[in-house]
Every structure is written in C-alpha cells, then in structure tokens.
Amino acid sequence: xxxxxLVGDQLRxxxxxxxxxxxxxTVPGETALLRDGIGLDSLGGTIxxxxxxxxxxxxxxxxxxxxxxxxxLGTLAAFIAARTDRRI
Amino acid sequence: xxxxxxxxxxxxxxxxxxxxxxxxxxxADPAMTGVLAELARRGLLHALASRNPPTAAGYVxxxxxxxxxxxxxxxxxKSAAIRRIIAELGVAADAVAFxxxxxxxxxxxxxxxxxxxxxxxxxxxxxxxxxxFSPPVLTEEARRRGELYLTRRxxxxxxxxxxxxxxxxxxxxxxxxxxAAAGTADLPRLHELSVRTHQFNSAVAPxxxxxxxxLLAAAxxxxxxxxxxxxxxxxxxxxxxxxxxGRATAGxxxxxxxxxxxxxxxxxxxxxxxxxxxLLAWLCRAARRAGADLVTVPCVVNSRNVPLRIALAxxxxxxxxAAAGTAxxxxxxxxxxxxxxxxxxxxxAGSGPVKVAVYARRLDEPLxxxxxxxxxxxx
Lengths: 88, 379
Fold this sequence. Notes:
The structure holds two protein chains of two kinds. Chain A is 55% helix and 0% strand. Chain A contains four helices and no strands. Chain A has helices spanning 3-19, 42-56, 60-63, 73-84. In chain A, helix 1 packs across helix 2 (42-56) and helix 1 crosses helix 4. Chain B has 13 helices and 14 strands. The interface between A and B is medium-sized, with 20 and 27 residues.
C-alpha cells in the first residue's frame, strides 16, 4: 500500500468519526469535502484539519492559503502525503 | 484572554472525592465555588472534566447552583476530555484554563495541550485578579453567555439524533438570521465581538467603539449586524461586518466597483449554524445589487481563524495571486491602530509581524445561495 492510500484511509477514519457515518470508510477519493460533497462546514473542516495536524504533523491551513487541498478527499490525501514523505 | 475554565471535580470543586465518600457526599469547596461564581459573573464559561460517572456532574450542578456549559465525565484522559470541550464550545485551546488538584493530571494536560493554561486550585484565588481572567468589556449578552451555551448543549444533542442534512436540521431548529444596518445601540456589542472573536475574525486588531461610531456616520461605509435565534433560544447579536462601499468625493459617494470588507466577525457561539455562510452569501448578493463586481476581504492569516478561511473558500473567495503565482500575503509590522488607521495593523499580542491576505470574490460567477431563513435589510 502506498503512503497516499494509507493517508486516504486515515482521512476516511477521521471523517467517519467526525460525522458518525460509517459509510465514510468507503467513500471515493474524488468526493468533495465541503458543501455539496461530504458537506463539511467550517466547524467540520476545522476539526478535520486539527486532527490532520495531530496525526500527520502537517499544518494544512498554514501552508495552503486558499485551502485548495480541501477540494476532495484525494487532494487532501495527496497534499499530506507529499509533506509526510516516509514519516508515516 | 481566558473564555472557558474547565474544572476537575474531586478535591477541586468538591471538598473530597465523589466516589469515595460513601453515604455522605462531599460538600462544595467554598473557595473554588466562590471563584467559579465570580468568573461566571464576568461572562466566562465553565465546564467539567472528571474521572467520575456522569451523575457527579449533576451533583456538582446541584451543589453549586451553576449549570455548566459542557460536562465530560468518564475514564479517558483529561486532555481528551478538554479536546472534546474545545470542539463542543468552539473555543480556542489558548482561551481555556484547566484547574485540577492532581499534579499528574495537570502534567498530562500541559504536555498534550501546551496552549491550555493549567492551574492548581491554590492558584485560582489569585488568578481571579489576573488580566487573562478579566474581560475588558462586559455586556448583558456576555453575562447571559453561560446560559446560551447550555441551549447549545441541547441543540447538539438533538443534532446528533437528527440524521438529516445540516440544512434540514437548521430548518427543523427554526433558525432565523437577521442581517441589518447597525445602530448606535449596537456599538458596545460590536466592539465586544471585535475583542472576543478569533476563530471568525478577519481583522488584525480590535476596533474601538469610537472608530465604529465614525464608520457608522461615514457615507462611504456600512456597519452591519447579524442576529441569530432558533427555537432553543435567542442568541442576539452574534456577528457583524464593516463594508467600504465606494469613495466619498465632494460630499457625494461614488459607487465603487469593489466592496471592501475590512472587518468580518462572528461569535463562535454561532459556529456550525449556517450564519457565516449566510453573511458571505448576503455580502456577495448585496454588492452585486449595488453594482459592484468584486468583494474583497483582507484577512489576517493565523492558526486561529481557520474556520473563517474555510468559510471564505466555501463561498468562492480566493486569496489574490501575484504575477509569480504566489498568494498575495503582506506582512505588517506590529503597530496598534485598528480600522480607523488602516496603515496601523497590529498583532493583538503585540509580538512581531502579522500575515494578511486579501481574499477576493468575483460577482460575475454564480453566487452562493441565501437560505430563506435569512432576513436582510440595508444597503
């Protein structure tokens, strides 16, 4: 399993915990995180990014001004994987 | 500034240990109950984190006569309990103080959550006089704050059980948002919001009441208020913004092509209730109606206002990019001033430079929807 896939699965776990919806564990990578996709609002998005910083040590909000990485589950996983390198 | 005090129960709020007291439950600790009452009077929130069954929280509430804004009783770590309280109340970790008689518990929290102010009960009697525990402005709404967080607890319990979409839930709660032009009577509360809000605050420094009054009187500016209520309670004035709508020349205001928003703020009490999204949608729509084709929000970039930046991204705002493709971030030296002095943007802590990015939204693209539970009046 690649780092990217590992990160993606960990994000799915965080989202399942956050939303209380176990369907999140199998959600595809191209699913949008905000609004029309999973529908995270600013509270949900903040909790997700806090958990990402805790688990991966990546401060997405500090590095990604426009938060483009929050577009989909896949873009966020790629953003994190590119910064964690072999640390996970 | 501390907004929330998280209390341990055994040998802290109680003069003894709840589960080891047999038939006769321990009495309240008079010193700590006194501190709790005084801080509640100043508008600080209180929460419980205890390794006890949930009945202990009920016992402490009955004994002290104080209804806590959040209660975490269980066998997990204190830092995990505080993390849940932080998420539930929407406060920042560095706005939280934790009081526990057990040095090990204090060490665990200090290690896991270094931003939290960790205190022993014997420190608390003195801490009451520290500036961090003395909010500069105290309005009627601040006094009611603890009560409002209680209704929030009820709302969140219902939201967990609800199951539908967030929009359905907001409708089910009979959420009502009213966006209107500010009056003089709103200025103390708007000033208070500018001091107390961090998660949803675009400005670098608080704005004084005098500066707000000047903006209110200026023909080329609008000061707006946002009020929130639902069937659980009336939250009152929870947010606001200042808009520069054009340039005043020779007594007339020339309509601008761009609405600039130097201050955008919302109480974290309204977090997760659709308010910031409604305000941003209204801003875009009102600006387009007024003939503008761009809305800009200069926004400080720090770790605390991530929720605001997520809301901006969700509403289609982008940090403007420079020619090289890098985001336009200006770094400003600390120099207290505020909005009346746009050149003097300052870090509230007064420590070093502050990053500010200009978020812009073009209005010729489809605009975010304004839900039908939002009422708006004004420009």
